[in-house]
Amino acid sequence: MTKVVKAVYRNGVLELLEPVDLEEGEEVYIVLKTSRERLAQRLYGVAKKRRPDLTKEEFLEVIEEIEDESVRGF
Question: Global pTM?
Fold first, then answer.
């Protein structure tokens, strides 16, 4: 079964923002997804070196296009 649960990382601990129905000792897999804004912050400087005229808004649009393509299976 797959369920998406939001969590926040504080003081070195990942805290769930909603309750989950798990049995004691049950193992789960956690997939971390970086937000688009955080990704832009991390990669925008690198892209800006290649294209000095690139705006942050344009960069976010490119990221959104890439995400749309991966959803369609390209």
Answer: 0.44
